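Late entry, evening session. Most of the bench is empty. Finally got around to the prediction I had been postponing all week. Sequence below, unchanged from the version circulated by S.P.
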Amino acid sequence: MSAVLISFGSGAQALMQGNFVVDAYYGFPNFGRSFSQSVEDANTGGNNFKAGGIGPAGLRLEYMIADRVGIGADVIYNSNIIKFSAVDSTYNGTTDTWSTQTNEYEYIMQRVRAQVRLNYHFDIASPDFDSYIGVGAGTNNRFRKTLENGVDITENDGLANFTLLPFSMRFALGARYYFSQNVGLNMEIGLGGPVISAGLSIKL
């Protein structure tokens, strides 16, 4: 990518004023899933515990308002799912006895970030390559659900839709390679969203 950034020139360029670009991408890593699994592995060796999830994945839209400047939107989605079973004890006050039962638990967290995006495109003398630096800012929403034996008990855990910070930001460096006039590949590295992502680009 660094070689792309320094290849300045006056030849044809991949994007110009008036172009519209759609990027679909999938990114790595899913920090929530990785953190949950690593903590559980350290404590129990991973017995009877599963961590999964989707993303971060998303869709970027960009309209070139000038040959070097584009504005648009970026929607980022990721989820984290934890499943495990636990033996719970229940006290019966009538009979003054304790009983045990194995319960299945599932924690689901979904995160959606919708950001307004501004990109500055480098002056690269190639009709196939595009490289840019971008910044985005917008919303940050988390949606949580807790299931016990398949029954939704979210209201009892007190963290249903709790979000520490209601806003999000992203700083990114990206590149696109068009293997045809309108279709190409995209790659982006950044902070505030996927550390690295790649996907398909369509230029209109």
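Two things to note before I forget:
Confidence is low (pLDDT under 50) at residues 1-10.
Residues 31-44 form the longest helix (14 residues).
Will write this up properly tomorrow.
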